[in-house]
């Protein structure tokens, strides 16, 4: 009740409209939420909402379907009734769609017994009602028979009118479909892993040259020599081999990177961790200049 009030009466009071909103009572606006189960049940579905008396469907109404195979009992005999959609095979017990008027052009059907079958015609379906006609002579019955019935809980109950206008009852029960528990084999994902993660990741390791020469770059030594403009730096086997104004290497012995207009600095040591730490990032503006490391560097 407290949670429901926090969504209904309390907000209405907060905005000063407690006399017209927040309750289902005479004089209140017809603003409603319709669910198909308990309101706070995670499995419940919001079917529709009412706004000032107008219903707006969120999820289509659940309407029973006549599609499938039925065991039809009439006049002491058991027949098989089949109703199918030639355009879309459907065998589920329920069809979630807005009720529509179905004519014979869409659904097809037949009634059979002892290897004898007859097509049904004048097939009309609306919501849970069905009516159709058959020529009974093929099945050993006399004349034209008109069926009309109502569907409830996988059972159709109704009446049959003969050509003599006599009425008898009939009952049809939906035949259950045995679904085999087929084990599905999980497939490996087709997604590729990039290293490092993000926009600049690579599918494969890049070439690993033995030597790399960067020439004519601005070198930030962070040492006594300070910043060196238009200098070269040579790396061999992952280590700095030489730093000089002009380095020459044999052709093809190193990958040469033109560093004019570019800067080379030592690797930056970002001495912080996000693990089990608070007060790391400023909470309203995501900008690195406002990152605070107080509780990480000195947690005491």
Molecular structure report:
- With 300 residues, the chain is mainly beta.
- It has four domains: 2-57, no CATH class; 63-174, Lipocalin; 191-268, Urease, subunit C, domain 1 (Roll), CATH 2.30.40; 272-300, no CATH class.
- It has three helices and 20 strands.
- Strands 8-11-12-13-14-15-5-6-9-10 form a ten-stranded antiparallel sheet, with no helix packed on it. Strands 16, 17, 18, 19 and 20 form a five-stranded mixed sheet that branches. A three-stranded antiparallel sheet has the order 1-2-3, with no helix packed on it.
- The chain is elongated, with a radius of gyration of 39 Å.
- The model is unreliable at 90-104 (pLDDT under 50).
Order of helices and strands: HHEEEEEEEEEEEEEEEEEEEEH
List how many beta strands DSSP finds: 20
Q: Give the strand line-up of the largest sheet.
A: 8-11-12-13-14-15-5-6-9-10
Helix content: under 10%
Oligomeric state of this protein: single chain
Instruction: Determine the number of helices (DSSP H or I, runs of at least 4 residues).
Output: 3
What's the architecture of the largest domain, going by CATH?
Beta Barrel
CATH class of the largest domain: Mainly Beta
* CATH topology grouping of the largest domain: Lipocalin
Q: What count of domains describes the coordinates? A: 4
* Major sheet: 10 strands, antiparallel
Q: Are there runs of 5+ residues with pLDDT below 50, and where? A: 90-104
> What is the SS-derived class?
mainly beta
Q: Give the overall pLDDT as a whole number.
A: 82
Q: Provide the gyration radius in Å.
A: 39 Å
The rough form would be described as elongated
How far is the N terminus from the C terminus?
A: 44 Å
- Estimate what percentage of residues fall within beta strands: 35-45%
Organism: marine metagenome
Domain Amidohydrolase-related: 3-54
GO molecular function: hydrolase activity, acting on carbon-nitrogen (but not peptide) bonds
InterPro entries: Amidohydro-rel, Metal-dep_hydrolase_composite, Metallo-dep_Hydrolase
């Amino acid at each position: 009740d407290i949670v429901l009030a926090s969504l209904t009466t309390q907000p209405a009071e907060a905005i000063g409209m407690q006399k017209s909103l927040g309750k289902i009572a005479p004089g209140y606006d017809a603003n409603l939420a319709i669910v198909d189960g308990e309101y706070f049940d995670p499995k419940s579905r919001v079917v529709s909402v009412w706004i000032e008396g107008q219903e707006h469907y969120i999820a289509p109404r659940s309407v029973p379907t006549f599609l499938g195979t039925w065991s039809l009992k009439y006049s002491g005999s058991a027949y098989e009734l089949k109703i199918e959609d030639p355009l879309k095979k459907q065998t589920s017990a329920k069809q979630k769609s807005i009720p529509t008027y179905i004519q014979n052009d869409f659904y097809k059907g037949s009634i059979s017994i002892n290897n004898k079958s007859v097509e049904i015609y004048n097939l009309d379906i609306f919501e849970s009602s069905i009516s159709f006609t058959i020529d009974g002579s093929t099945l050993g019955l006399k004349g034209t028979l008109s069926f009309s019935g109502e569907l409830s809980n996988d059972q159709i109950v109704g009446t049959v009118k003969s050509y003599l206008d006599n009425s008898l009852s009939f009952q049809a029960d939906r035949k259950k479909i045995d679904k085999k528990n087929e084990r599905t084999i999980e497939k490996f994902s087709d997604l590729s892993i990039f290293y490092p993660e993000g926009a600049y990741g690579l599918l494969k390791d890049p070439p690993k040259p033995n030597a790399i020469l960067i020439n004519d770059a601005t070198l930030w030594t962070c040492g006594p020599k300070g910043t060196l403009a238009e200098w070269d730096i040579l790396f061999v086997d992952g280590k700095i081999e030489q730093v000089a104004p002009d380095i020459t290497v044999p052709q093809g012995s190193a990958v040469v990177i033109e560093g004019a207009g570019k800067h080379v600095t030592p690797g930056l040591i970002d001495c912080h961790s996000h693990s089990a730490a608070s007060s790391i990032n400023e909470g309203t503006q995501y900008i690195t200049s406002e990152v605070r490391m107080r509780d990480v560097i000195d947690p005491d």
